[in-house]
């Protein structure tokens, strides 16, 4: 008899059972190691994503603050230009008031002169000086209003352009 035959059959079954059980234990141990590695990779990935999110949020805040600073700076510059333009408009308006007073004085002088020379002619037609003086006064007033409006819109447009240029200048 051979040494294989010397062992009872139940021993062979026991050896087979031990080998199969050991193989299964090995497979379970390998699977647990892979699961632990996968969990570690998942944790690392979540940390990377969280760090990228924090970094992106910080960059977005920094860009927003930079753009707000550009807008504030340009707004302040535009406000100063508007104040300067309003001061110049007030100076021009006072000069225009002086000219209007001079026109009124000349008109009154002309009326007085015409009144003594030809009362009938004055009633028949309006003096050219009076009409031209009125037209000049009205044109001057309108020109001042239009110049003021134009200056304000020019300053506002330049401020908007500067803000937009400032936004684009530092974009990533």
Terminal residue distance? 87 Å
Number of helices: 4
Low-confidence stretches: none
Radius of gyration: 48 Å
Q: What's the helical proportion of residues?
A: over 70%
Helix and strand sequence: HHHH
Structural class: mainly alpha
**β content, as a range?**
under 5%
**Mean residue pLDDT:** 82
Based on CA inertia axes, which overall geometry fits? rod-shaped
Q: Quickly count the domains.
A: 1
Number of strands: 0
Biggest β-sheet, characterized?
none
List the helices and strands and how they pair.
Blueprint: H1 3-6, H2 9-117, H3 119-124, H4 128-169
Helix pairs in contact: 2-4
Give a brief rundown of this model.
94% of the residues lie in helices and 0% in strands. The chain is an all-alpha fold.
What can you tell me about this protein's structure?
The protein is mainly α and 172 residues long. It has one domain (10-169). Helix content is 94%, strand content 0%. It has helices at 3-6, 9-117, 119-124, 128-169. α2 runs antiparallel to α4. The radius of gyration is 48 Å and the shape is rod-shaped.
